[in-house]
């Protein structure tokens, strides 16, 4: 058997297994749905209201027909007590109370483009991106997440098999090839309310080559720098005002697309596991960040860039010590909470899910996820002038919890 035949056989077998795993993740529904429910305490905390007040309001809105009825699985089979609320019901209550967590005014607050980026693979870029995107959507923010990685792991977590469900025309490639004037064609809704996706597949690899030819063919130095730093930005500018936040899940590579992402982003979070190789990669990334600002995109400023300590095995003294060293070295440039290694996250990923999608997430694991997400949320809020009160409240709340 020829090598190409062996590879073809392996690909078919692998696709079959992926298909079964993806089908299991959707069962018993045709499409993937969000089964997570928020209990009365979680709902009250989200809305900043008392439990009894929220329960009375929910009952009133259901009677009026302005809020969705409870499904049978949302109530106790014997007592009829409400077990939890859906994201849609929670957002209906937010609308009723006039609670808008995102940008208040397009003229005052600008949509934020946040890159989750590192040169190295295996540092939890995608897991950071997807958990933060879902966290923000659960809070009521309008979020667009953009998969820029040809491996398309983030796309898979939203219920798609790349290259089977996602065609080349569904990705960013047609925009970079000049076949689409904006990115609206690539935006699709997800089963998370307020959370949209621009998906990826293997064709995203071709963007690098397309950028190379365009940069080579630029007539002036100004055009060359603009293509290097702002091509992606030009596309995102056509859709970003529909959202409070655009999250870029970036490829683990060092190339023209990486430079384009750096020129596009308003803010950057750098996932960094506590190890020597990952730390070295982060240092290289910081140097490129500096070079991009000074040579490719002169005058570029970021609203914030932060490092997040990821994949921390908390019972390993060496990793804890390395984490402590990072906090000492980088100081305020670190997100103050870590993203620890958790079996719950890995278990959920095996079913193409995240921890936040579990019907009843493990409380300790959920608290760890929400810990670093809340800190990134706080950094985002600081970029919106209208949210000064929210920033003060969140800072006070976090200090009280600590």
CATH structural architecture of the largest domain? 3-Layer(aba) Sandwich
User: Looking at the chains present, what oligomeric state does this protein adopt?
Assistant: single chain
Helix content estimate: 40-55%
Strand arrangement across the biggest beta sheet: 3-4-2-5-1-6-7-8
Major β-sheet annotation:
8 strands, mixed
Helix/strand/pairing class, anyone? alpha/beta
Gap between N and C termini: 62 Å
Q: Give the H and E element order.
A: HHHHEHEHHEEHHEHEHEHEHHH
* Number of individual domains: 2
The best one-word shape is globular
User: Overall mean pLDDT score?
Assistant: 87
CATH superfamily of the largest domain: P-loop containing nucleotide triphosphate hydrolases
CATH class of the largest domain: Alpha Beta
How much β-strand is present in the residues?
Answer: 5-15%
Could you characterize what this model shows?
The chain is α/β, with parallel strands linked by helices. The protein folds into 2 domains: 40-97, no CATH class; 112-401, Rossmann fold (3-Layer(aba) Sandwich), CATH 3.40.50. The chain is 48% helix and 9% strand. It has 15 helices and 8 strands. The protein has helices spanning 3-26, 40-47, 51-64, 87-97, 125-138, 153-157, 173-176, 205-216, 221-236, 256-264, 276-296, 317-330, 343-349, 363-381, 388-401; strands at residues 112-116, 143-147, 188-189, 195-198, 245-249, 267-272, 304-312, 339-340. An 8-stranded mixed β-sheet has the order 3-4-2-5-1-6-7-8, sandwiched between helices. β7 (304-312), α12 (317-330) and β8 (339-340) form a beta-alpha-beta unit. α5 (125-138) packs across α14 (363-381), α8 (205-216) packs antiparallel against α9 and α9 (221-236) packs across α10. The termini are far apart. The mean pLDDT is 87.
